[in-house]
Structures are given as structure tokens and as C-alpha cells.
Write a structure and sequence with these properties.
- The chain is α+β, with helices and mostly antiparallel strands.
- The protein has two domains: about 160 residues, FAD/NAD(P)-binding domain (3-Layer(bba) Sandwich), CATH 3.50.50; about 200 residues, D-Amino Acid Oxidase, Chain A, domain 2 (2-Layer Sandwich).
- About 25% of the residues lie in helices and about 30% in strands.
- The strands form three sheets. Strands 1, 2, 9, 10, 11, 12, 18 and 19 form an eight-stranded mixed sheet that branches.
- Strand 10 and strand 11 form a beta hairpin.
């Protein structure tokens, strides 16, 4: 049995954990990050899962509120630096459009418009009746009465798989150790922590950061569970030819407040080349059949044989309505999951003298994951919290209103 001691160990090599490992390894401490690689096949995988097994995540300054805007802004400022150091490209600043119901009280444009000036976003609002955005994106279509907001660069998308690889590459360049394993238990003793892994290894650490995403409450990682609610997420991958992908190369990312019976809250990335060499437009949304798994068994059941295809017809119809002239070669669903916290912001907090947690992306954690990892790393190393981000929003909180 091998045994090794590290000053700081990050559990979970996902978007937040890999960012935390990069930031921690800048301080010269002995840092390790433990987490499994993406499984080759999800439908028979018996371990833990992640929310980043994909090629496209929307990134933008405008969004839910000014706190999310600042989280994104700090991170976006670092994208080019991480790309340059790792020599891994993950960022495409193609812009974003937000298409909203005209309803004045409950629409997707209120928060972005409130924050756009303060955060310094470059944007243009196309009010009801102004369809001149069609000159920019003639291949897209939306209901005539829906206003549209276009945020220019730095909005666009990041490749979450590539971002994780880039962060891990930088962390290792700075001396961090990457251990491809799954943690199955943490024991806090008076002078240190003992970490057990699925492959039978034992490691010790002075401090631990649990950044295991939706699985943070499983596998005995934390001394007590934190409030996290997991939701299943269904996406479609719509294949287009390489020629079509080229004609859509200036397509922005999309957030669309669709009016439909079975689905809502559409988000979409332009055609991106996936590991199989084909080009897919990725579209996700909430569905009427979304579930709230509470155990690893239920999560595995969802990834293995969840009924994501129940919503394929509704999602296909919504996609084709947005691309009236585009031919799709194949459209299939994929299953994923997200997790929510009571505050609606990621939880970044300290549970004991030695155990810290950074989890709960609330469906929006990719774009600002570098900031979230930076904040968590700062808690361990005693760095100052970042300005513009109210500390209390990120503390462990109780449920007042459950999202379920
Ligand atoms: C379909 C979909 C679309 C999304 N779109 C967007 C978007 O457009 N923009 C955006 O900003 N966000 C988006 N998100 C949200 C974003 O992907 C998540 O918020 C983000 O991945 C959270 O990062 P994380 O590090 O907390 O979790 P993850 O990325 O899931 O990483 C957690 C890691 O922990 C590991 N782990 C778990 N348990 C253990 C264990 N016991 N031992 C060791 N390792 C463990 C896992 O293997 C995983 O690698 C989307 C999410 C989904 C699912």
C-alpha cells in the first residue's frame, strides 16, 4: 500500500477542483488533486459522474445578477493566460444572444440589462419589432414579438473538457500531483487527514478541499452533508455537416425563454467538433420529466438508462424552429446532471479546521469556475476574499425555499 503526504489535497478533478489546484499550486505548497478521468462509457460506469463531460459551456458577463457577472469577469480575464501557459485552447468568444418573452415582469432580459453597464458588457438590445439582428444571424429564427439582446465578445463558449485539462496541466507544471482515483473516505485526525481511495491507496494531508460537484455528499467525503439538490439535465446533440458548421461559424451562443408545454429554459452552443470528429449543435433545457436524485445509485440509474428520449420530440421541434433552413443529420439526447444550493450561489466554505468545500454550480458554474477555484484556494491558504463578491453568499446555508 502506498502512502504519501501532501499539504493540500483537492478531491475532484472537475471544473472547480482543477482551478483550485492551479491556484493552490501557485503558493509553493505540496498540492495533490485526486479524481477519476472521464469514463469511456457512461452507460455502464459504476463510479461517480461529473457535470463537465461536454465540448461547450456558455460564458458571458451578463446573466443572472451582478455577483455571477463578477464571477465570470474575473475568470474570463484569466482564460487567455491559462490557454497560453497550458497550450490548450478552450475559449471561443463568439458572443451570446438572449431571446426573451415580451412579458415585462418575468423575462430573461431584466437582470442582464440591470447588470450590463456595471460590468462593462458590450451589448445591443433589439426591442420588440426590431428584427434587424437577422442581418447578423440570418439562419436563426425566433417569435417576432420576442425582444433579443446581443452580448458581444468576451461572451461565447468554453470547452469544459479542455478547460479542465488546461487547469490540470498548469497545476502540474507548478508542481501539483494529479492522482487518477476516486476517494471513498476521509478521516480527520488530530494532526492530519487520512484519505482512502477506491484503488486501495492511502494519502494524508494537512488540508482538504472537497470539490466533487454533485457527488460531494457521497463516498464519505464530508463530515456532514452540505445542502445540495441534484437535478437531472437533458441535452440534445444535433449533428450538422462540416459545410453547415462552416456556414454557422459566426453563430453566437443562445439563451432562449421558449414558450412550450414540456420544456423551458433553452441554452445552446454553436456547432462544435466533438471527439468523434463530427460537428454538433448542443441544446439543453429543463424538461417536465427532470428528476431530483438523492443517492449515487439513483444518479447511476439516470446515466445508465434514464428516459431522456421522452423529450426528444419536443426538443427537436424547438431546435428546428430556431433553424428553419438547417439540415440536421442526426439528433440524439445525452444525460447529465447539475446541482443547486440554497443561496443559488456555489458553496465555498470551511467545515472543520482542515476540511473545506467548493461545490454547487447551480447550472452556471463553468464560466466562472476559475474564480470559484481561486476563492476556494484562498480559503485554504488564507488569502483575502475577492472584492465585488459578498462573502456570506458563498457560505453554507439552509434551505428556505427548495428548488424541488
Ligand atoms: C448540460 C449542462 C450544461 C451546462 N451549461 C453551462 C453553461 O452553459 N455555462 C456554465 O457556466 N455552466 C454550465 N453548466 C454547469 C457547469 O458545468 C457546472 O456548474 C460545473 O461543471 C460545476 O463544476 P464542479 O467542479 O463543481 O463539478 P464537476 O465539473 O462535475 O466536477 C466534479 C468532479 O468531482 C469528481 N468526483 C466526484 N466524486 C469524487 C470522489 N469521491 N473522489 C474523487 N473525485 C470525485 C468527478 O469525477 C468530477 O470530475 C452546465 C451543466 C450541465 C450539466
Amino acid at each position: 500500500m502506498s502512502k504519501r503526504h501532501f499539504s493540500q489535497v483537492v478531491i475532484g478533478a472537475g471544473l472547480i477542483g482543477s482551478a483550485a489546484a492551479r491556484h493552490l499550486s501557485q503558493t509553493g505548497e505540496q498540492v495533490a488533486i485526486i479524481g477519476p478521468a472521464e469514463p469511456a462509457v457512461l452507460t455502464d460506469h459504476t463510479g461517480v459522474f461529473a457535470s463537465h463531460y461536454d465540448q461547450g459551456r456558455l460564458t458571458h458577463l451578463i446573466g443572472k445578477d451582478i455577483v455571477w457577472a463578477h464571477l465570470a469577469k474575473y475568470a474570463i480575464t484569466n482564460y487567455e493566460k491559462i490557454e497560453a501557459q497550458s497550450k490548450i485552447d478552450f475559449y471561443s468568444p463568439v458572443g451570446l444572444i438572449v431571446v426573451s418573452k415580451p412579458d415585462k415582469t418575468n423575462n430573461y432580459l431584466r437582470a442582464p440589462l440591470e447588470t450590463a453597464e456595471e460590468i462593462g458588457a458590450h451589448y445591443k438590445l433589439y426591442s420588440v419589432g426590431d428584427r434587424s439582428w437577422k442581418n447578423l444571424f440570418p439562419y436563426l429564427d425566433y417569435p417576432a414579438e420576442f425582444p433579443l439582446l446581443h452580448e458581444d465578445e468576451p461572451a461565447g463558449y468554453i470547452n469544459p473538457r479542455a478547460l479542465v485539462e488546461a487547469q490540470l496541466t498548469c497545476a502540474q507544471q507548478q508542481g501539483a500531483t494529479l492522482i487518477r482515483d476516486t476517494v471513498i473516505g476521509i478521516d480527520e485526525q488530530a494532526s492530519h487527514l487520512v484519505i482512502q481511495t477506491a484503488s486501495g491507496k492511502t494519502y494524508t494531508a494537512d488540508q482538504i478541499l472537497v470539490a466533487s460537484g454533485a457527488s460531494s455528499n457521497f463516498n464519505n467525503l464530508l463530515p456532514r452533508p452540505i445542502p445540495l439538490k441534484i437535478k437531472t439535465e437533458t441535452i440534445i446533440l444535433a449533428e450538422v455537416s462540416a459545410e453547415t458548421a462552416a456556414t454557422l461559424s459566426d453563430m453566437p451562443t443562445v439563451i432562449y425563454q421558449i414558450e412550450a408545454d414540456q420544456i423551458d429554459d433553452i441554452y445552446m452552443a454553436p456547432p462544435i467538433q466533438y471527439p468523434d470528429g463530427r460537428y454538433y449543435i448542443k441544446m439543453g433545457c429543463n424538461t417536465a420529466g427532470d428528476q431530483w436524485p438523492t443517492s449515487l445509485d439513483e444518479i447511476q440509474a439516470w446515466f445508465h438508462h434514464g428516459r431522456s428520449d421522452d423529450y426528444l420530440p419536443a426538443m427537436r421541434e424547438a431546435l428546428q424552429a430556431q433553424f428553419p433552413q438547417t439540415e440536421f443529420l442526426d439528433i440524439h439526447t445525452h444525460r447529465c446532471f447539475v446541482c443547486y444550493t440554497p443561496s443559488g450561489y456555489p458553496t465555498i466554505d470551511q467545515l472543520t479546521g482542515r476540511i473545506f468545500v467548493a461545490a454547487g454550480g447551480n447550472g452556471s458554474g463553468a464560466k466562472g469556475s476559475d474564480t470559484l477555484g481561486r476563492l476556494a484556494a484562498g480559503l485554504l491558504s488564507g488569502a483575502e476574499w475577492l472584492p465585488d463578491l459578498p462573502r456570506d453568499l458563498f457560505r453554507i446555508q439552509k434551505w428556505h425555499i427548495s428548488p424541488k
